[in-house]
Here is the input.
Amino acid sequence: MSLPAFIAALDLLAADAPARIGAAVDLEAWTEVRNALVGRQSGRLTDIMAGLGALAKEDRREAGQRANSVKVAIEEALAHRHAELAAAAPKSGSSFDLSMPARGRWKGAVHPVSLVIDEVIEIFRELGFTIALGPEAEHAWYNFGALNFPDDHPAMDLHDTLYLGDGQVLRTHTSPVQVRTLQQYPPPVRVLAPGNVYRRDFFDPSHAPMFAQIEGLVVDEGVSFADLKATLSHFARRFFGSTTQTRFRPSYFPFTEPSAEMDVQCGVCSGSGCSVCKQSGWIEILGAGMVHPAVLEAAGLDSERFTGWAFGMGPARTAISRHGIPDIRILYDADVRFLDQFTR
Amino acid sequence: MNLSHEWLARFVPHGRDAAAVRHLITAHVATVEGFERLRADLSSFVVARVVESEKIPDTKLSWNKVDDGSGTVLEVVCGAPNVTVGATYPFARAGTMMPAGFTIEKKKIRGFTSNGMLCSARELGLGEEHDGILALETSAAPGTALLDVLPLGDVRLTVDVLPNRPDLLSHLGVAREISALTGTALQRPAELTALASVGVVPVRGEDRVQVAGLSVRIDDVGDCPQYGAAIVTGLTVGPSPDWLRACVEAVGGRSINNIVDATNYLLHGFGQPMHAFDATKIGGGTIVVRRGRAGETLVTLDGTERRLDATMLVIADATAPIALAGVIGGRASEVTSATTTVVLEVALFAPGVVRATRRRAGLSTDASYRFERGIDPAAVAEQLALGAALLAHLGGGRVDALLHAGAAPSARATVRVRPARVALVLGETIGGDEILRLLESLGFACAPGADGAFDVTPPSWRHDVTREVDLIEEVARLRGFDRLPDVLKGVRPGTVPDHPLFATYRRVRDALVAEGLHEVRPLPFTSGHPAGAAAAELVRVMNPLADDEPFLRRSVLDTLARRAEFNLNRMQGDVRLFEVGTTFVARGTALPLEAQHVGLLVMGARRPVHFSEAQPPAFDAWDAKALASTLATAAFPGAEITLVPAATPVLWQVRAGEIVVGEVRQLTLDAPVWAKPAFGVELVLGEVSSTPIAAPGHHAHGTVTSRSRADAPVRYRALPVTPAAEFDLALLVPDAVAASQVEEVLRSVSGPQLERCELFDEFRGAGVPVGTRSLAWRLTFRHPERTLREKEIEGRRTLLLKTLEAQLGVRPRTA
Here is the structure.
C-alpha cells in the first residue's frame, strides 16, 4: 500500500464517521457503530492501521500521526454520543425484555380462489394430469361450434356471451381448451385447464361477469363413464374428506353425452336438508360427462377408436362456501382487509 | 317447469309420495330444484300428545296437559268431546296463524290458562269434519311438523328442464319417465275420461284448408309445418270447475275463465301450446299464417303495441295480424265473457322462427318456450281433437268443425345401438335384453339388427336422440348413474406437457407472497384511459356490461391502480397487491394479441409497526426496484436481469438478457393527501396464442416439438483457497455521471479477478464540491491460485483512477 492510498482510506473514514455516530439511536446501536469504526476485531480504523507495516519506512511516521488524529476525533465523537444516549436511556438499565414482539414483516397471501385451484390441481396431478392453457379472447368456433352447440338454439341461452367481433367472443367456459389440446396433442390426453371465463351476467351477490373455471379432460382408448365416476369420486373424497358421499345426476351439456352433474352430500346437515343445500341434502360441485363424439370429430380424432370424459367446476363457489363469504363481489374487490385474512 | 304431484299421479298412479318422486326424477331424469307444499299455511302446526285430561265442571270443556315436544308440558283448554289421554292431535301453539286467518293466542278460559289449540279437520281446512279434534294415526314424536306425518294437499315440484329435453315440459312428459322408472302404466287423467268424442271428422289439406265459416292458409310450411283449428260454438264463458282451477293454480298460474284455463291446462298437461280466438273477431273468417310486414303493428294480450317485420311469424285474418305465432295472442281477438264461438288454434310452428319472433318482440311465453325447443309433431292432431272436446265440455257448447293443414311428420331415422359400444362407453356390460327393456319402456321402438345390435326408432317427442351415444345415455340414466361401477383404473400418462406459463405463474406468485404481497383476481374491464394507450390498440367489448368500462385492459397495473384507489377510499393506505392476469391489445379485425402479465403495486409502510422504530419507513423507489428484480428473477430464471434507468413516469426498464420485459414506475393515483406514494412493476410473462391449431375436423399432431429447459444449469466454481484483497474507492462524481457508468468502468477495468464491487456510500455536503457527489465503492479481488501482490493491487487502483478521470471526469475524494 502506498501513503496516498492509506491517507485516502483515513480521509474517507473521517468523513463519514460523524454521520454514523449521530445515527446511533440507542446504546445498542452505539456499540455496533463503535465496533464498526474502531473495534479491535473488525473496525475500519483497525483494518487501515493493519496496512501501516506495509508502508515504506519513511512514510510510517506521517501515516501514524494522521491515523492517530482520526482516531482521537472518532473517539471524542463516540464519547459525546454515548453521554447523550445514556442520559436518554431508561434508568432500569440494560435488562432485555424477551416478551416484546419480534420485528414485523408483512405476510403475503394467495387469493382464496387460487387456493382452491391449487388444491384441485394437486389432487389431479397425482393422477397424471398436466396443465393446459388457452386464450380468453376466442374464436366462436372453439367456444361453440367445435363443442357441438347447435346454431341459434336455446342451448346458447345458457351462455350469455360477451362478443368482441364477428365470430369472436370472450370465452364463456374453459371447454375450448379441450378442442385446442386435442388438435395439438395425440391421445392419451390427461389435462387440467384452469382459467378465467366470461358471461354477460351483471355483478350481484352470486354472479360475476368473469370467473375462474377448471376444466378436466381425459381422452384415450377404452375410457368409460365408470372411469369418470371413479376419478371424480376419488377427487371428492380427497378434497372434501375421505367419507364424502357423491351422487351423479343426469344433466345436459352439448359437448358431453352422457352428461352428469356431481353433488357431494351437504357437510352442514349430512344430507338431511338445511338452508345451505336448499333442503336437498346435496351440494352441486361440478358438471361432467363423456366427451361427445362430435367434439372428438371436430378435433380430427376417430370417435369410434377414442373415448373420453371431461368435467368443469367453478372454484369461486367452493371458496365462497368453504370460507363463508356472503357476496361473490368481495373476491374481486382486492380489499386488503379481506386479503389479509388469507395470510399464511 | 312446475309440476303438480297430484296431477302427475293422475297420469301415472305410481303410489309414491312427493319426496320419493323428487328423488326419482332427480336421479334419473332432470333435477328437481323446488319442492313446495301448497298447504304451507299448515307448516307451523305440530304433532302433540295429550298426557292428562280432566273435564271442567258445568262446561263442555276439558283442561288438558299437552306435550308438544318443546320440553314444557303445556296447559290447553279444549272444547272437543273426543280428547283421549295418550292420543296425538294436530296442535297450534300460541302465535300460530290459523287457515281461517286468525292467530291463536295464550288466554284464560273459565280461569284456566290455554297455551294453544288442539285442532279439528275443519279448523285446518281439511274438510267439513268438526265433531271433534283430528286424532292422528302416527308414531311420530310430539313436536314433529304436522306436514311430515300427514302429507296434506298438493306439492309443487320445480324441475330444471334443460334445452335438450323439451318433452319434459309437461306432466305427460315427466309421467312417461316415471312410468318407465316404476313400471306403472300411463293412463289418461280421470278428468278427461268422461269427455265426449268431438263427433266431427277433421278436414285435411296441405297449405290451404276451408270449412264453412273458416279458411286457413299457410304461406310457408317451413315456418308452420302444421296448423289445426277447431270451431266451437254455443259456449258460455265462465268460471272454471274446481279441478281445473286447482290444476292451473298448482303449477303457479291464475285461473281466468274456463276457456283460457282449458288451453293452459292442456299446455301444462300435454305440452301442446294452444290459443283460443273469439271467432267473431277474425276478419273475413280467414286465418293466414305469414311473416309480418314492415309498418304493421299488433296490440298483444299484455296490452303492448308491437311493431312487426319480416323476421316475425304472425297469424293474420283477412286484413291484419291477430297474433304473434307461437308467442302471444292479440288483444282484439281475445276471448271475453261475451264470447260464444271460439276458434281454437293447435299448431306446430318451426323452432327457429318462433325464436326469432319472440326475440324481436322481447317476450318469452310458456308457448314460445316450448315451440322454440320443439313440441311433439305427431301429437298435434290428437291435441286438436282433445282441446276442442274439452272446450265444448267446459263451455257447454259443441264442436262445429275441425280442420288441419300441413303434412304428418316424416318418419324418424333409426339409430343403431351396439351392446358392445354401450359397455365400452359406460364401463359395464349391460345385456341386450336389458338395453331393449329400458329403451322400450320410454317409447323407443327397437328392431334387432346385425351382431346383436338394435335399430332404434326414437319416439316422435324425442328430438334429442340422433346418435348411438344418445341411446347409451338413455340406458345409463334409466338404470341410474349410481349403479355404474366406481373403481379407479391404471392409466397411461398423457402426451401434453405443462404449459410453461403455468409454471411461471407459480414461481412469481411464490416469490411475491414471500415478499408480503397479496394476490388479487379483479375484473379486467377498464374505462379505456390507461396511461398512454393508443385508442386503436384498445379492445372493445361489443355488448359491454357497463358503458363506462367497455374495454379490456392493456395493462395489469391499470387494474391494480384502481384497486389501490378502492382501498384508499376505505382508509387503507398500506397496500401491497399483485396479479398474474391477461391483457389484450387490438389487432384490427383479428383476435386481440393476448399476453400474460404480472403486475405489482406497493404503497405505504414498508413493514409493520415495531417498538424499535417510531414509524416504519414508506415504500420508495428503491423498494420497487428490488421487487422488480426479485420478480423478474422468478419470472425468467437463468436470464441476466438488468434495470435500466428510463424517462419518467417510468423509473426503470426491466430487461431479461437483451429483451425488455417490463418496467417500474411511480403511479399517479386519485389519492387523498395522507396517502403515501405508490409504485408499480409490470412484466410480460408471455403471449397466449389464439391462432387456430388446425382447421375444423383436423388435428396437427406431431407438429409441436417438445419444450426443453430454457435456463442452463448452474456450473460449479471451485471454492476459493487464496486470500482476498480489498480496498475502498471514494470518488467525486459529477452529477451528470450515473453510478452505473462508474461501476461499468470499475468492472471492465478490474478484470476477471474482481470478485465483488459494492457501492456502500453516497454523500453530499461539506467537503464535496457543488455539482458533484461522493460515492464510495468497496472492491474485492482474488486470484484463484495465489495471493495477490501489493503491487498488483496498487496498479489496479491507479489504473482505475486514471481511467475514471479520463472517461468520466471522476476524481478521487481527498480529505
Observations:
- The domain at 112-342 of chain A is CATH 3.30.930.10 (BirA Bifunctional Protein; domain 2).
- The CA atoms of residues 203 and 324 of chain A lie 19 Å apart.
- Strands of chain A lie at 130-131, 137-139, 163-165, 168-170, 189-198, 210-220, 246-250, 256-265, 282-291, 307-313.
- Chain A has a mean pLDDT of 90.
